[in-house]
Write a structure and sequence with these properties.
5-stranded mixed sheet; 5 strands; alpha+beta; single chain; Nuclear Transport Factor 2, Chain: A; globular
């Protein structure tokens, strides 16, 4: 159960990347930032992506997690064709 809210940002360009059927990874910083909510944040972001861009997703997606206290954390999902990775911008 998420305490906050995940939102997907508008992608800059359309693409033809598939975000299904490939392994998904999360960086250490992503996992440390979201702690016990890590899997729920990643799952929610992934579902938002598949819903918003089912056939025209770019390899680079930007999300925002808003905590109930107003704090916000930006994170990325990058598709490297053979796998996808959730990470924080500071880890790039």
């Amino acid at each position: 159960m998420l305490k906050g809210k995940v939102t997907i940002q508008e992608q800059e360009v359309s693409g033809n990347y598939k975000f299904v059927g490939i392994p998904m990874y999360m960086t250490k910083g992503f996992q440390e930032t979201f702690g016990e909510e890590t899997n729920a944040v990643a799952f929610t972001a992934h579902m938002l992506l598949l819903e918003k861009y089912p056939n025209d997703a770019d390899y680079f997606q930007v999300f925002l997690y808003s905590y109930p206290d107003g704090k916000e954390v930006k994170f990325w999902l990058i598709n490297d064709v053979s796998h996808m990775t959730f990470l924080l911008p500071s880890e790039y």
